[in-house]
Amino acid sequence: MTNYTGSTPSHPRKPDWRDNATCASLDPEIWFPQPGDTAAVHEAKKACFGCPVMTDCARYALQTRQMTGVWGGLSEQQRNTLLKRRTPDPNTLDAVVHQILREEMHPITSLRDLWEDRTYPLPDPGGHIGWRADNESGSFNFQGHRYTPKQVAFLLDRGHKAVGIVRRTPECPVIECVNPRHLADGKERFDRKQAEQRAALAALEAAAAEPVEALAS
Length: 217
Ligand SMILES: [Zn+2]
Prior knowledge:
With 217 residues, the protein is mainly alpha-helical. It has two domains: 17-105, no CATH class; 108-188, no CATH class. It has seven helices and six strands; from the N terminus they run H-H-H-H-H-E-E-E-E-H-E-E-H. The strands form three sheets. It has a two-stranded antiparallel ribbon with strand order 1-2. It is elongated and about 85 Å long. The N and C termini lie far apart (95 Å). Mean pLDDT is 86; it is low at 1-9. The structure holds zinc ion. Residues 128, 172, 174, 177, 179, 182 line the site of zinc ion.
């Protein structure tokens, strides 16, 4: 207290992780969604996932037994499950929190794991890839979204969701093939058709221009 001036301190507490928290600049209400409002919980979590002090916040909530709200990306239910299992060990807590949130934070990574698990090379030459499906249709639920194997192949390869239906390109004759290089979405099919039309038009123009050049030379 060497520089104590006698006035009320401007900070009621020492600076800590809370000063860097994303939620400090957002409406506090969003971290306390109504019970059962999964969409609101998801929205709050999304803000947490980009926060630089997410694990500090999760640790704080677990150690101080916060019963309500989303803290450090963890929902009430997730914290309850964790606390029921055991008293969190501060040394392994970060790893445990990341383990729990891994699929939510990195859906692509986990979809890639699924891809590695489900796909296999088909015997036909040409690099075709097969998919081991659980059911007749082959589509499945993953983190609240429904995917077909072809949509997963497309998403992992292109890094974005498909537009419209993902179909094999005319070059691939294997019906069940999910090799992303043998697939195209609606936008890619459209772009390809446009490119083909432009090429055909350019060829026509070149052919039409030829006799003129011949005369000029
Ligand atoms: Zn193929």
